[in-house]
């Protein structure tokens, strides 16, 4: 079998099973594990999968920067954001992550709601300037321009006196065994810190982020008490998450 054919088969198995193991592939294709690992490295370099110990997972396609993601509005994104906004109660303190869905979330907040929003996203904060009942606390730090959020030691230190009711987290990968992940190391640290300062964490995830992984792990799937997904998300994608004990909310 040609290398290109073997790679195509690997991707087909990955799509079917949601993961591949180097040992099983080497036995199936009757080649060495070194050969399979080389195939996986090359496929990973093309962004076609995410390597993990012993094999690979589907790679998350959600890697575009904020400027490219912002114009992409959809009814499904608004539905996810509206479901998240509906979880915020009167007088609560909530942490809102950065990202386009997070911005849509704060746009969906009722005008009569009185609450406090803590965010490390300047864009989220600006969206709330004209909201009469929302107190806004902005976490300062180094601006990560790709996602337009603050990160780093100063941002994490600023969280030290905050105890929130819920953190609405954006991710680029949600996987039953690989957990929650994102495409930048400092963002992963920041998201983990934000989750540590909230009583519960709710993940906002479009279908293309489910059963996928990115380079940097935020934490175990159990970090999330609930995951809000599009109503049309295939049940085959969400069933492993529910089996792991996470509540899946379809919006």
TrEMBL record:
Please name the Pfam families in this protein's record. Answer: DeoRC (PF00455), HTH_DeoR (PF08220)
Q: Which GO terms describe its molecular function?
A: DNA binding; DNA-binding transcription factor activity
PROSITE patterns xrefs: HTH_DEOR_1, HTH_DEOR_2
Keywords (alphabetical) are: DNA-binding, Repressor, Transcription, Transcription regulation
Per the record, the domain of life is Bacteria
- HTH deoR-type domain location is 3-58
Gene3D superfamilies, sorted: 3.40.50.1360, Winged helix-like DNA-binding domain superfamily/Winged helix DNA-binding domain
Q: What protein name is recorded for this chain?
A: DeoR/GlpR transcriptional regulator
Q: Whose protein is this, by species?
A: Trinickia violacea
């Amino acid at each position: 079998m040609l290398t290109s054919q073997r790679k195509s088969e690997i991707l087909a198995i990955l799509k079917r099973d949601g993961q591949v193991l180097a040992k099983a592939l080497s036995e199936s294709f009757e080649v060495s594990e070194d050969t399979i690992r080389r195939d996986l490295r090359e496929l990973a370099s093309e962004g076609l999968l995410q390597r993990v110990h012993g094999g690979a997972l589907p790679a998350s396609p959600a890697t575009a920067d904020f400027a490219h993601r912002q114009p992409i509005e959809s009814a499904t994104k608004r539905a996810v954001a509206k479901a998240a906004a509906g979880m915020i109660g009167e007088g609560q303190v909530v942490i809102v992550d950065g990202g386009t869905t997070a911005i849509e979330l704060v746009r969906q907040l009722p005008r009569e709601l009185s609450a406090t929003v803590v965010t490390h996203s300047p864009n989220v904060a600006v969206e709330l300037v004209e909201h009469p009942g929302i107190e806004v606390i902005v976490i300062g730090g180094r601006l990560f321009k790709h996602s337009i959020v603050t990160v780093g030691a100063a941002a994490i230190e600023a969280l030290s006196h905050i105890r929130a009711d819920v953190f609405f987290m954006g991710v680029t990968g949600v996987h039953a065994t690989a957990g929650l992940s994102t495409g930048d190391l400092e963002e992963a640290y920041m998201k983990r810190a934000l989750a540590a300062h909230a009583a519960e964490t709710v993940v906002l995830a479009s279908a293309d982020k489910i059963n996928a992984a990115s380079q940097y792990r935020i934490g175990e799937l159990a970090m999330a008490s609930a995951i809000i997904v599009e109503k049309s998300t295939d049940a085959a994608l969400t069933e492993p998450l529910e089996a792991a004990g996470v509540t899946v909310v379809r919006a």
